[in-house]
Amino acid sequence: MSAVLAEARWPEPGDGPPAALPGFVHSPFAPLVAAVADRCLTRRYGARPAPAGTTCAVVLVSAAGDRPSAAHVRATVAAGGRVGPLFFFQSVPNSVAGHVAARWGLDGPVVCLSPTGDPRADGLAQADLLLYDGDADEALLVEIEEAPDGTPTGAVAVLLGGGTRQ
C-alpha cells in the first residue's frame, strides 16, 4: 500500500470560493479541482513546478463530472442558443486534470474515474495500480463532491507515494 505524502481539502477554515481558473467558465468544478490540487502539491513540493525526476500521475474521481457546465450546455442547446467554445474544452473532467499536470510539470498518466462504489476506495485502487505497475512514482488523487443540484461543494486531494499507507 502507498503512503500519504501530502493532503489538502477545499474548503479549509478561512476559505472562500476558489479563484477563477483561466480557460474555464461558468462552473466552480474546475477551479475547485485546481485549488485543492495546488494546495496539496504545494504542501509537498513548495512552489511550482514539481521537482524533476519524479513521475506523478493525476487521478480525478467524480461521480458525475462537471454537472453545472453540462446543464448549461443542455439548456443552451434546448433553447436554440450557441454553445461557447470553452465548453467543448472543459466538457470532460480530464481537461482540468491535464491543466493541473501541465501547471505543475507532472509527467505521469492522467486518469478520470466515475466511481461505481466508494469514491475513495476506487480512487485509491487506481492510484495504487499506477504506482505498483511503475507508471508513476507518486499519484495525486483528487476527489470532488457535489450537492444534489450538481454544484461542487468540496474536494480532497491526497498525494500518494511508495511505502505503506496508514
TrEMBL record:
Domain Beta-ketoacyl synthase-like N-terminal: 52-148
Signal peptide positions (record): none
Pfam families: Ketoacyl-synt_2 (PF13723)
Protein name (database record): Beta-ketoacyl synthase-like N-terminal domain-containing protein
Organism: Micromonospora purpureochromogenes
